[in-house]
Design goal:
Elements (H helix, E strand, L loop, with lengths): L2 H14 L2 H9 L7 E2 L2 E2 L14 E2 L2 E2 L6 H15 L17 H11 L27 H7 L3 H9 L24 H7 L1 H18 L5 H22 L12 H19 L6 H8 L21 H19 L3 H9 L3 H16 L5 H13 L2
Antiparallel strand pairs: 1-2, 3-4
Helix pairs in contact: 1-14, 3-4, 3-6, 4-11, 6-8, 7-8, 8-9, 9-10, 10-12, 13-15
Length: 368
């Protein structure tokens, strides 16, 4: 397969991913609801400014175990970083941070933020539906991608001069850092990478680089921070004991998928993220659930679970070299653009052959 055939494949891909095809694919899903009036769920009920959050003795004290408070952290981060996001596009929802509130919404509506131990009704329909359980593995992992970046943004002055933040902690729960200082000690790499992203926003926006290179640079900083949060969240691993082996396998595949997405500098804006998150499983998986044949999940959800599992199986079979090959192929602005398109094909187009995925990666790697 020569360079021309690679180009033809990607031209074919772009034709296949026209909006009509995507909407057809997404209409197959009886998916977890992630959008409400075109915005993340319950967005209208979140804080529009920092002063809307609770304060104590002059310190901002959000409760990250309340869904609306945690969603507010995202809304505020998007608002203060948007002035530096011109290279991302002209839409108000082009910031890569939009992927995070959609992900949090999916976790809520699919039941993944509820107490998995059954000891409380936190997050259940019979209890406080907006409660995020500190025992939820998903809620714990997301803490590293919500509370920690928010504290970093505040420390970098984006929330206003001298704004101090201390996250509330549930009674008896002591294994979450709650201030910038304590998080910087417990998870130095996570805080350092988010600091670098927030510091890099202004520098990149003012740089003389072409817009596509500015965009690629910003997305690189963003995904470095995101992956640092993902690696830091290994602290949550004991909480996986509360879930079935099938859900744990999916959670690991979900985490591993970020390796591919981040290397391609995926632009996780509202529209792109909705396409990737909508087909995720709309309920917690149980023993006996085997994709692509889970009866009460949609064709799109089954396909996504199957592809996640396939990628992980191939990577394991190749002793981890699929991830290394992919990262090696994502060596330039151009190959990362192609990589983003190919990920869309693989996850959203059931007709896209997995063998094509492997052959294109091999070809792209040789070009680096």
């Amino acid at each position: 397969m020569g360079p021309n055939s690679v180009e033809k494949t990607f031209h074919f891909s772009s034709v296949m991913l026209r909006p009509a095809v995507l909407s057809l694919l997404l209409s197959l899903a009886s998916c977890a609801v992630i959008l409400e009036n075109g915005m993340p769920i319950l967005w209208a009920q979140t804080a529009g400014q920092v002063t809307d959050l609770p304060t104590q003795n002059g310190v901002v004290t959000p409760d990250p175990w309340n869904f609306l408070h945690r969603m507010s952290l995202y809304r505020l981060m998007i608002a203060v970083t948007d002035p530096f996001m011109g290279s991302m596009g002209t839409n108000a929802t082009d910031s890569p941070i939009w992927g995070l509130p959609l992900q949090l919404g999916w976790m809520l509506t699919s039941g993944r933020l509820a107490d998995p131990t059954g000891a409380t009704t936190c997050g259940l329909a019979t209890g406080d539906t907006k409660c995020i359980s500190p025992q939820s593995w998903w809620g714990c992992v997301n803490y590293f991608a919500s509370a920690l970046p928010f504290m970093s943004a505040a420390e970098q002055g984006l929330m206003g001069a001298g704004v101090q933040v201390q996250m509330q902690a549930p009674e008896g729960v002591t294994d979450y850092c709650t201030t910038y200082a304590s998080c910087a000690v417990a998870y130095p790499d996570v805080i350092a990478k988010w600091d670098a992203f927030f510091q890099g926003l202004k520098a990149t926006a003012e740089s003389p680089l072409p817009e596509n290179e500015k965009k690629d640079s910003l997305l690189g900083l963003y995904w470095e921070a995101q992956m640092a949060s993902s690696y830091g969240s290994s602290a949550c691993i004991a909480r996986q004991n509360h879930y079935s082996s099938v859900e744990v396998a999916f959670s690991k595949n979900w985490e591993n998928s970020a390796e591919y997405v981040s290397a391609a500098h995926f632009q996780s804006n509202l529209e792109n993220s909705a396409m990737f998150i909508a087909p995720l499983p709309s309920r917690i998986l149980q023993v006996g659930d085997t994709a692509p044949n889970i009866a009460d999940l949609s064709e799109a959800e089954n396909h996504t679970l199957y592809i996640f599992s396939w990628i992980n199986s191939i990577n394991n079979l190749l002793a981890g070299s699929l991830v290394r090959m992919w990262k090696g192929a994502m060596c330039s602005v151009t190959t990362r653009e192609k990589g983003r398109e190919m990920l869309g094909q693989l996850l959203l187009n059931p007709g896209f052959a997995t063998s094509t995925f492997l052959s294109i990666i091999s070809e792209m790697t040789r070009g680096c």
